[in-house]
Structure formats: structure tokens, C-alpha cells
Amino acid sequence: WHMVGRPAMRPRTSLDATGVFYSTMTGNTETCGNHIVEALKGAGVDASDLTDIGDADSVDSFDSLIVGAPTWHTGADSERSGTAWDEWLYDTLPSLDLSGKKVAVFGCGDQEGYADNYCDAAGELFDQFKAAGATLVGMTSTDGYNHVESKAEVESGKFCGQMFDEDNQYDESEGRAKAWVEQLKGEGMF
Ligand SMILES: Cc1cc2nc3c(=O)[nH]c(=O)nc-3n(C[C@H](O)[C@H](O)[C@H](O)COP(=O)(O)O)c2cc1C
After folding, report:
1. Contacts of 7 (CB under 8 A, 6+ apart)
2. Which fold has domain 18-186?
């Protein structure tokens, strides 16, 4: 039985929307992701619910993506999030065509306890999405942070996206999310 002569159905119609994906071990990245989703709603952006990357399909059906990870696995060279991203970045992402899609990265880490590796996994997401052909947006200043080294600091004084610290600066997270969404809007992401 074929639907001869009928146009193929589009599996979903989210092409104009922004997908928001995250992962977490202890809930902090989820807290920050929810601040971002609230800020997107407040700004009138057509965005998905916050979705665990471990449960995600058709990530590439979105026009733009906001992706966030915590950092665990201190000191390893890769697979730093300690979550579903680690497999997804190397097993799924290379098979997706993200050329022309805007991607913004956020991270959650502990700048005091892990000052030499603050939010390293966010830097890894940045590198891998870039390698997959995406256009990375949303870099922010490192002013106001107290880390020593970070793979998320992709240029001197610049993080690859928005970094959060629920261990030391949880009261900054909501404001950081709001300011970043405004910045992404200004950069033409939505
Ligand atoms: C064993 C362990 C290793 C960690 N390694 C790092 C690290 O290398 N860099 C960092 O910024 N934070 C590190 N952290 C802190 C977590 O990333 C931080 O608490 C984060 O908020 C956790 O996010 P989640 O609750 O979404 O998993 C580590 C925490 C633990 C307990």
C-alpha cells in the first residue's frame, strides 16, 4: 500500500522554532535550562520545552538550537559532561547536517571547586557542533567569574556561550539567562 501521488508528509513543523536541549547529573543544568526557557517565553520566542538530549530525536529539525551541559569527568580530554551528551556528540551528531543552523551553548560548572576546568564540557559542545557545520553564536564575557582555566573560554576573556554556576553564583543564573536571550535575539538567532 503506497500513498501514490501524494506529497511526502513533513514529520514535524518546527522548522522555525528553537530547540532547547540539556543533560544533567544532579539537576543544576536543568535549573539553568529552565531559566533560559522562561526567558525565551518572556521574549516571545517560539521554542521547545527543555528536553533531555538522552530522550531527543530530530534535533536537526529545528532551525536553531540552544544546548547545555554540566561538567564532570574532570581532566579527561573528551566526554566531559558525564551525561548522555558524551555518546550523542560522537555517535549521533556526526550524522546530522547542521550547516546553516545557529547553535548557542550553555554550561554549568563549579568555578571555585574546579577552577582549572570550569565548564570544560561546554567548550567540548562548542567544538563538536562547530565541526558538524553549525554557526555558533552567543559568546559572552568572562567578567564576573573567578576561574583559572576553562575549555569554554575559547578566546581570551570570552566564553563560547553562557556559563552558569549553581554552586557559587546561583543568584545570578536567572539574570544571566535573561540577558543572554536578549543577546541571542540581538544576534539574530530567532
Ligand atoms: C566529581 C565531580 C567532578 C566535577 N568536575 C567539574 C569540572 O571539571 N568542572 C566544573 O566546572 N565543574 C565540575 N563539577 C561541578 C559540577 O559540574 C557542578 O556541580 C554542576 O552544577 C553540576 O551540574 P548538574 O547538576 O546539571 O549535573 C564537578 C563535580 C563533581 C562532584
Report:
1. none
2. Rossmann fold (3.40.50)
